[in-house]
Structures are given as C-alpha cells and as structure tokens.
Amino acid sequence: MNSKSRTALTAGVLAVALGLGATVQASAGTTRSVSGKPSDDITRIADFYGAYIDAVTDEDSDGLGEALKGHYLSAAFQKKLSAWEETNHANGVLRAQNVPLAWKVTDNGGADYTEAVITLTWGGSTTTKLVVDMSHSSHKIFRIGEKGSGKN
Q1: What burial letters (b/e) apply to 49-72, b meaning 16+ CB within 10 Å?
Q2: pTM of the full predicted structure?
Q3: Which residue pairs from 105-110 have beta carbons closer than 8 angstroms and sit at least 24 positions apart in sequence?
Q4: How many CB atoms lie within 10 A of CB 141?
Q5: pLDDT one-digit tens code per residue, 69-121
Q6: Is residue 131 within 8 Å of residue 108, measured between CB atoms?
Q7: CA triple 105-106-111, angle to 5 deg
Q8: Helix (H) or strand (E) segment spanning residue 72
C-alpha cells in the first residue's frame, strides 16, 4: 500500500469514526495560495469580506467589525448602512441575521467604479448573492445591495 492510499484509507476510517461519512477528503499535502494587491478593488472587497466575516464570527473581536466598516466603507454609506440595519434588524454588510460559512467575490466589471458579486454560502449549501460597488479613486465601498445599481 503506497503513501497516498494509506492517507486516503486513514482519512476514510477517521471520517467514519467521527460520523462524517464520505464528506471528508484526504488532502495529502495539497497547498493553496491566495494573492492580491491593495491597488486592486476586487482584492480590497475580498479582504473586507474575509476580515469582516472573521470579526463577526469571533465573539471576542472587540469591535473589529465596526472598525473594518469605518476603514472600508465611505462615510455616507456607513450612515445609509446603519439606517438599513435599524430598519431591517439585520447585519447590513451580510444582509442577514447570521454569519455565512463561506464567501466568494467575483468581479462584475464596471467602468466608473468596481462592481463585485459576493456569493455567501450558508448551512445546507444555500447561497445568496450581494452586489458591492467600490469607488476607483477612494477604494471605499459606497453600496451593498441585492441587485446591481445599473449605473455602470
């Protein structure tokens, strides 16, 4: 039995022992990489959503979610978002009352500003999509909605 077979067998036995069934996959040394640059709006939007979701997931984040909103969102949008949250009794960045299990940011084009589609994955593999707009000049998010603004 080679090393990969032994790793797969061990993962399978461990999965059954833990009651996880066939959902566990062996990752015999698989590497991943993530890259980005601060001048790229899609990178900045992805950085914001990743850090924000971590902050609201971690109970002891000491106001980090609010600080991230202060850094990444325009001042005018922060006020609109606060009003939305008050009206809807939900988190305005996530447009939900709970926190997603995963997220993905996809560039949706744009000439005057960057438009990105955020796919949030919830329990049971349910997904929702949000559209986030960011200014090219300020690198600040100025809109989060369920649909695009159609202005780009």
Answers
A1: bebbbebbeeeebeeebeebbeeb
A2: 0.77
A3: 105/42, 105/45, 105/46, 105/49, 105/132, 107/42, 108/148, 109/152, 110/152
A4: 26
A5: 999 999 999 999 999 999 999 999 999 999 999 999 999 988 899 999 999 99
A6: yes
A7: 120
A8: helix 64-72
